[in-house]
Design goal:
transmembrane, 288 residues, transport, membrane, transmembrane helix, ABC transporter involved in vitamin B12 uptake, BtuC, 3% strand, mainly alpha, single chain
Length: 288
């Protein structure tokens, strides 16, 4: 039971991070390799708020989310939209966006290294135990999971129960057809890309409450988010959540029973198994 709940707590945070990349890749068609750097920026914001003002790091969410949204909106319109306009097909757009965001990730890492240095950062906040089902868990992990679940639930309702969500789903399925029914595809894509970046930054703030991090750790979470998105099915929010929980459970199981150093190997093994037996992802559709 301890392994199960610990894995679910970790998987909930992974789900939030992966949902950001799922929105960007599934709707805007941008494979954002700088997604992890948005997460690290959110983590630094939580660290700064707590250490500088001695208040809850969750206060950082009130400015991290809008600032990350605005920053990613500008990135899409200034850097990525020209690539979208010149791309002749989806394959070319994916290649161009991978190269552009890969370079952007180095720029963001350099900026954070210049601002914060190369040291590791952590802080102790709500590191007290809380008893659940007869076992003790850190309060910071439990609260982070609860907040991540609320955000994930809100995003799911936004995508599936609102008019904006209907437009987002239409663009995800077929951008050309969506344009024929008076949907502003470029506006929806920019909005979704910005929303994905804001979600990733929020996930970073939550992670900072119990994880030691540095300026260059973003690539690890970019890889994990990419694994989750492909495992769950590109553009499918349900798939991202289920795949994230499965990854969290797998990593916790390996770290507890084998070796914490093998957690990344466990993620890749799970990824390979999904590709072998269900290449379209858990909730993806087979190509006709």
């Amino acid at each position: 039971m301890v392994i199960l709940l610990t894995g679910l707590f970790l998987g909930g945070i992974y789900a939030l991070i992966a949902m950001g990349l799922s929105l960007q890749y599934g709707v805007a068609r941008i494979m954002n390799l700088a997604s992890g750097e948005m997460l690290v920026a959110g983590a630094f914001a939580g660290f700064w708020v707590y250490t500088a003002f001695s208040v809850s790091p969750y206060v950082a969410l009130f400015f991290v989310v809008p600032l990350a949204f605005a920053f990613n909106w500008l990135i899409y319109n200034w850097l990525l939209l020209p690539l979208v306009r010149r791309a002749k097909n989806r394959g070319q757009l994916e290649v161009d966006s991978i190269l552009a965001t890969f370079g952007m990730s180095f720029v963001l890492v350099g900026v954070m290294l210049m601002a914060f240095g190369g040291s590791y950062f952590s802080y102790s906040w709500l590191a007290r135990p809380i008893e659940l089902l007869g076992s003790n868990y850190s309060q910071n992990r439990v609260l982070a999971f609860a907040v991540a679940a609320v955000i994930c639930g809100g995003l799911y309702l936004l995508i599936n129960r609102t008019r904006l969500g209907l437009s987002i789903r239409a663009v995800a399925v077929d951008p050309r057809a969506a344009g024929l029914v008076a949907i502003d595809v470029k506006k929806v894509a920019a909005l979704t890309f910005a929303l994905g970046g804001a979600v990733a930054a929020a996930g970073g703030t939550l992670l900072s409450t119990f994880l030691t991090f540095d300026a260059s750790i973003g690539v690890v979470f970019t890889i994990k988010a990419l694994v989750i998105v492909i495992m769950g099915g590109v553009g499918d929010i349900r798939g991202a959540i289920v795949a994230a929980l499965a990854l969290g459970l797998a990593e916790t199981l390996v770290a507890t029973l084998l070796d914490p150093g093998l957690t990344l190997a466990a993620a890749y093994l799970l990824f390979i198994l999904i590709l072998l037996f269900r290449p379209q992802g858990l909730f993806g559709r087979s190509a006709l």
